[in-house]
Write a structure and sequence with these properties.
The protein has 446 residues and is an alpha+beta fold. It is built from 10 helices and 17 strands.
Amino acid sequence: MFACAAYKLNTGFTESVKKEIRDNVIRMRNHACLGLWCGNNEIESMWEGWNVPSDPEARADYVRLFEEIIPEELKKYDPETFYWPSSPSSGGNRFKGSECFKGSSDNNRGDQHFWAVWHGFAPLEEFRKYDFPFCSEYGFESIPSMKTIASFAGKKDLNLTSPVMEAHQKCVLGNEKLLFYIAQMCRCPKSFEETVYAAQLVQAESIRLNAEHLRRKRGRCMGSLYWQLNDSNPVISWSAVDYFGRPKALYYASKRFYAPLLISCLEEDTKDVQLHITNDTAETKEGTVLWQLRKNDGTTVKQGEYGFKAEPLSAQKILSLDLSGELSRERYKRSCFLEYSAVIGGKTASRGCTIFVRPKSFTFLNPELSLAIEETQSEFILQIKSRNFAKGVLLDLRDGDCMFDDNFFDICGRHTVTVDKSSLTKPFTARMLKSKLTVMSCYDLQ
């Protein structure tokens, strides 16, 4: 309802707000997923950090609206749900006196929006410098799938700086930022299709870095929300799912890094490569961490396992690995990866894969991917095999759409992906499905 602007109060406007509060609260108050009511987006921080001219009357109206009128109305219709005056906020301004509208983005209080990565051109690793109590907004753009682009662009428009593509980019310097970050992470794409693929990979990697970092800080940080889930039109944006419902790499990465039990890696120092377990369930989880340092051809250099016990609602470092000997030379860093998983009751609860250089510097061998499809009454089961390590494996259909249960995954050996038949936009046999499938990985960007 309220975002990024000052609202001056009068009797008519105030009564209109009260009616809208009543309507929306009654409509949504019984949703199980409702965590809190937030008064506005970024208005509190606007007064402090956006070089907005001082306006004592408007500031007083702000406090009156968001810290008196709205919470008073909420008490009438939903007294049980917590209210937060703004996002980001350190708790409001009503009782701050001379400190009013100061510290709205205090890294030690309340929630924060973090845009140094993306808007500020900071490297992706910048996320790891901050331990926010709650990071309620951060994001990174990517390009929708080629099939979505075909809905608004012809072949002559398939260039990121073409008038059509720029018309479908609403962020200032958005396409320039995309190219900047693609160049940081990947080798220069050789085609527009590769540009789309690379942009989605970099977006997923950016959000993964922050989400996993903050989950490792559980206790200090109690959550994060990335911007954004979906789109209101076919466009280049921050979304994980595009306008037509086609998932991007970020969608699949989110399923992994927001899993209730997560294993994650902190790889900045090869003398101290850390494996962490975050358990956001209400149950104690016991199992085994399996890890392997492997070469790009799949050869195992070093491996081990370690039992763990993760208490409910906890995060802990499980292992610290000294891989400095194995990764002592740059060429080893460029050709080795760490594979790790948390296994509980014989089943993999979470898995991950880490390389020690950016993808553009890694020596990818031809993965020689092969595919076999088995059909059951309700689904297709895809068995993917790779001879060598493959990162960011993308499965897609040239004609039609479907929902893969996993995609943009790392593989060195075997991986199983299923397709629910009900998700297919047109009927396929196993043979037809295989003939329409396309496969891409980071090897194709070399």
